[in-house]
Task: structure prediction
Amino acid sequence: MKLGLIAEFDAAHHLPSYQGKCSKIHGHTYKVEVLIEGPVNQDGLVMDFYQLKKILSSALKDLDHCNLNDIIPNPTAELIAKMIFSRLKLELEGTSVRLVQLKLWEGRNKWVAIE
Result:
């Protein structure tokens, strides 16, 4: 069965090698959609939503209200998504679920997905 969760964080960044507006520092409200998959356990849950929320919050904790360039030299949506995906995969190791997809929204109308 699949289970999903959404979280948000706010951060600033600039794209150093980009020609255009995004070369200047600016901010976004990012939305992170996580999709996991696993068996329904004896307790009737794939994973407790609260537990998944704690894991996702841990993966995002240093990104909220920061300059993403301090963490990733070229913080494109694609590279931010890859980093969060890797963090979540590590956090979920040893559980009965697997990370199926992560979708990162940069503002309202733009997103990238990684599986």
User: Anything to note?
Assistant: The domain at 2-114 is CATH 3.30.479.10 (Tetrahydropterin Synthase; Chain A). The beta strands are 2-13, 26-37, 66-67, 98-106, 111-114. The mean pLDDT is 97.
